Amino acid sequence: MAIAIFILRLVVCALASPMYVLHFLGVWNWFCKRWFPYFMVKFSVIYNEQMASKKRELFSTLQEFAGPSGKLSLLEVGCGTGTNFKFYPPGCRVTCVDPNPNFEKFLIKSVAENRHLQFEQFVVAPGENMHQVADGSVDVVVCTLVLCSVKNQEQILREVCRVLRPGGAFYFMEHVSAERSTWNYFWQQVLDPAWFLLFDGCELTRESWKALERASFSKLKLQHIQAPLSWELVRPHIYGYAVK
């Protein structure tokens, strides 16, 4: 099986050779950072349509973590185009963090379309280093389709715990590695190197639930599902929340 994966990876690399050449020349990352937000605008609409019931279920308990004022202070890490805004409760104060500044114009559009929220700021920073966000300053942190592409999952979860107030919650929805005995996992392994470059650092074979289980949360509620998505490669999902 390992030999078959190696051979098929070589075939995929040959087909994607222009992308690898651009990466070698240092051009691909520049290009990808600019086109990726346009892709996410289209993809997010489809993803929200197919995952709407799961997102409503997941975010239905957000308001339970509001502070004494009754207003929920929420930090979204890897906010992208603001595709989750429609699922947040009215009056929610939202701060967004993303390492790609090219998402900002799409984020502003989402803010204009979601007047039920109180948008506070957009911070350009990686989730592993959110020093602009104060310790214990938010009730909830949200990240969806982010842990697949961060450089250091353990570090981003440490940062999540740092910015959360005591008793605050971390909500997540992530695509993950398929079960190892499946054909889906086989093709995830074959396509992962090219997928990583094409989709701005996204990895198909991450077992993100392990990082969540190791993190210093007092409570973790996590479910594995086969998401109702068109792309079978990203159907394996985890979602849930963890309490600090």
In short, what is this structure?
By secondary structure, the protein is an alpha/beta fold. The protein has helices at residues 2-15, 17-24, 28-59, 104-113, 153-163, 183-198, 208-214; strands at residues 73-77, 93-98, 118-124, 138-144, 164-175, 219-226, 236-243. A 7-stranded mixed sheet has the order 3-2-1-4-5-7-6, sandwiched between helices.
**From the coordinates shown, what is the CATH architecture?**
3-Layer(aba) Sandwich
Order of helices and strands: HHHEEHEEHEHHEE
> Low-confidence stretches at least 5 residues in length (pLDDT < 50)?
none
Distance between the termini: 42 Å
User: What would the CATH topology be?
Assistant: Rossmann fold
Placed side by side, the strands forming the largest sheet appear as 3-2-1-4-5-7-6
Strand content: 15-25%
Helix content: 40-55%
- CATH hierarchy class name: Alpha Beta
Overall form: globular
- Mean pLDDT figure: 94
**Count of spatially separate domains:** 1
Pfam families: Methyltransf_11
GO molecular function: S-adenosylmethionine-dependent methyltransferase activity
Transmembrane segments: 6-31
Domain Methyltransferase type: 75-172
Q: Can you walk me through this structure?
A:
The chain has 7 helices and 7 strands; from the N terminus they run αααββαββαβααββ. By secondary structure, the protein is α/β, with parallel strands linked by helices. Strands 3-2-1-4-5-7-6 form a 7-stranded mixed β-sheet, sandwiched between helices. Helix 5 links the parallel strand 4 and strand 5. The relative contact order is 0.14. The model has no long low-confidence stretch (mean pLDDT 94).
